[in-house]
Amino acid sequence: xxxxxxxxxxxxxxxxxxxxxxxxxxxxxxxxxxxxxxxxxxxxxxxxxxxxxxxxxxxxxxxxxxxxxxxxxxxxxxxxxxxxxxxxxxxxxxxxxxxxxxxxxxxxxxxxxxxxxxxxxxxxxxxxxxxxxxxxxxxxxxxxxxxxxxxxxxxxxxxxxxxxxxxxxxxxxxxxxxxxxxxxxxxxxxxxxxxxxxxxxxxxxxxxxxxxxxxxxxxxxxxxxxxxxxxxxxxxxxxxxxxxxxxxxxxxxxxxxxxxxxxxxxxxxxxxxxxxxxxxxxxxxxxxxxxxxxxxxxxxxxxxxxxxxxxxxxxxxxxxxxxxxxxxxxxxxxxxxx
Amino acid sequence: xxxxxxxxxxxxxxxxxxxxxxxxxxxxxxxxxxxxxxxxxxxxxxxxxxxxxxxxxxxxxxxxxxxxxxxxxxxxxxxxxxxxxxxxxxxxxxxxxxxxxxxxxxxxxxxxxxxxxxxxxxxxxxxxxxxxxxxxxxxxxxxxxxxxxxxxxxxxxxxxxxxxxxxxxxxxxxxxxxxxxxxxxxxxxxxxxxxxxxxxxxxxxxxxxxxxxxxxxxxxxxxxxxxxxxxxxxxxxxxxxxxxxxxxxxxxxxxxxxxxxxxxxxxx
Lengths: 338, 268
Description:
A: eight-stranded mixed β-sheet; B: Rossmann fold; 6 helices; 34% strand
């Protein structure tokens, strides 16, 4: 059911949601950007509707809510282990269409690829998603190319209008607050971008043979293997297991999983020192082909959602989308060899 | 909550020392009825504070599992220093492992490098007890030096059981009487009668796998009849952490045992 409400009324709805849920949304963090005197837009807990940044694409995605940078799985002593405690409240996440499509990728990895991950599931079960309608795209967005510009599986969707908000609310629990205040009903379709200035075409004939082409070589020199692209990416989910203990001689500690990156040294290194991808170009190839080829081969749908964050965040101005554009030439090069 | 990351405690029953850097730990295991274990599968073994490492099962009995561990990382270092009278934590089994049925009635060739002998140890044990279930069993095992030779007692027993077991070392001090040289140089000597009814498994470091398979193909082995077991960094064993992925495959879920033809075009 759709509603059209004023800012004040939506604030009332928001306050009633917060009684049961924590709310996370893109937020401006002043003065904490990557350069001095700059701000960063990233996800944070919001307690007031006015805290939500409707005007930008967040530099980092919502994914930390489901896969924290560092998450305690187990507490241990020498003799036994105890499971860490799960969330006690549900969470509402405000996100854009590309990110809502990214949730499907995360769900695939944690709920379908191998056995169900209980730590992911216990957070996921308490999540509700509020789609932030996009009335325009941002620099470097290519959601239309990746088919993620329109979302329908949201709990609520919000369009910002002059003087108020339009909300399409599918979830009965979230809708209750609108019913309680007798909000004016309206036909609401979430805003969606139907055309990006950037289009990206994944070649239809793309195969893993492109790994042998020379298109990857330039990244050996350009990429500094910092992994920022994978931190910003809403679909990158890799992590490592890490044990730590509380005091120098203490026998108690915790086992955590921490986000990891295929771009960073040590990712493939096994005990004894053997490393399977040393060069930056090899790591770039591994990452890019996962996003537009390998993940789809396994799951049936593309991994990349076209949010454009990786291009925006790279300190060396390396563009994922330019790389994808080169795949066609890469395929020509390797098929010429055969 | 069904927590796949919660390990269980397992007591160390016995420690067999093969070399300074390689011991076999015999661990208690009473979950065989609900969680049966196959050769070639692995467990995530851990000591709290030092983390987890994926280790292949090298022996299986009704109430115990063997893990042959090489002292190469921070966890295995700790395992070697502080195992006495102790226990480990573990979770598993993970991976597909070897199905002994695919070997039955065939001329079997197993080629291993170093601790690569562990994952096929259970396969050898099975056919050592059931030699009538295969046409022949030929094993070539390579080790770095005479001091690194694993499962010495088993080797003697296996050779006495009538299998064609060649073990060789990369280099040896003067006066060493055993075989010296890489596993690949013994491949042409394999006494195979019928390549249509043969099966080969290669387990070891990546380069050793690559050149052994080249040699097998050279002597006329059918590429469809070659299998290998991959090893990669694995933090979870559950298809979640991402480290072991090659193309669309996850070594921990889809492997570690693969047909050569499945993975030959894959690039790390």
